[in-house]
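Board notes (copied after class):
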Amino acid sequence: MKHIYFVGIKGVGMAALAIYCKEAGMKVSGCDTAEEFPTDDELKKANIPVDFGFDPQLLKKADLVIYTGAHEGRDNPVVVKARERGIETLPHGKALGMFMEGSRQITVAGSHGKTTTAAMIATILKSAGKDPSYAIGAGAIGESAAGHFGKANIFIAEGDEYVTDHGHDETPRFLWQKPELLVVTNIDFDHPDVYANIRNVQDAFVSLQEKSSTTIINRDDHNSRILREGISFGFSPQADFRITHSGVGRERMFFTLEQKGVKLGEFALKVPGAHNVSNATAAVVTCQALGISIDKIHKGLLDFSGTKRRFEKTGEANGVIYYDDYAHHPAEIKATLKAAREWYPEKKIIAVFQPHTYSRTKALLPDFARSFQDATMVILTDIYASARESYSHGITGKTLVEETLKHHGSVRYGKDFFEVEKILERESGDIVIFMGAGDIYTWAKKLWMKNSKS
């Protein structure tokens, strides 16, 4: 395999795998839309050429074409052209599983927190002198790319429960992996376009556990109890690795751990929130299972400075701090805003949320409406529709506004960036957090740059 062409290369999972392949010595290129993506800088740093658009003529010589479901999947014109020319084509999930073969596989799965936890594990191992391979769905990990080809026989990857190729292959993506160590951060109902209920989601995780040797499980998560016994972590007194204390310092989280009654000491984090304490504990357990000493784990955790789009500080201008976050599920919104409130207890926090997909917004509407309690004010936008959705399910951004007003006293509707900008010109805030999985990731940067010049 000499040349791989990635269709939809700017997606976070695709870009990470593309960078891994480039570092492994393969020729890598790809195509995507011209719009700005969180991965643009990392692809440029890796000298990976990106064609704009999906014209079949873009496909020159290639030994393999890897595609994502975000752009018509296997029905994308470039992918169709590749098959006509006899070039092998693979969906991203299946390709990732293929590249992991032959390595000690560390799969981090879960409805929330898998990106951060996988990045923490990679950071600790690197800090400890190991050189693992990894492909993690983030624009970047600190100052480094989210994909890497390492010399150690370890491969860390996220396990995504979404289907391999919607409409063609309904296999959950993570079932292409065969983990030696499986980390499950939590199980929650999401992706209502492919899962009818929480039990269907749980069944997918049970199938993944059947492929793994050892499972590291969040004892605090009720939905994860469907999994068979493994190594448990959490705040629960029944956890094998128990968080006995958690507190907030000046832009630091501190927590103490015990392993079956034996104290492991105090750990420090540069990222906020009890959810990140839980993620960090999962990383501690995983790295200890890989033979890393507690002293090195302490240092590695403190080296972790976060990932792109996870409570990412964009900048500060005129006394306002701007953050960008990927939160697109009610549980993630609540966790992000709770962490922000702990970090900044006396500040006015404005949450700007762009709902992602009609199906998710409709299925979880009551939960979304109750998820903003730690924000001083909420601004809700129009729904960012997925390319996979062809109808609106009878729901709009205004529907969410009306429902949220039942639970929060300060809610505004701004359909797009320009209307949100006007609202923020009238409303003063100390902290503004932009959240969502659509194109909202550019908004914090735009406002910060504009206001820093004024």
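Comment from the instructor: The radius of gyration is 21 Å. The chain has three domains: 3-90, 101-303, 312-453.
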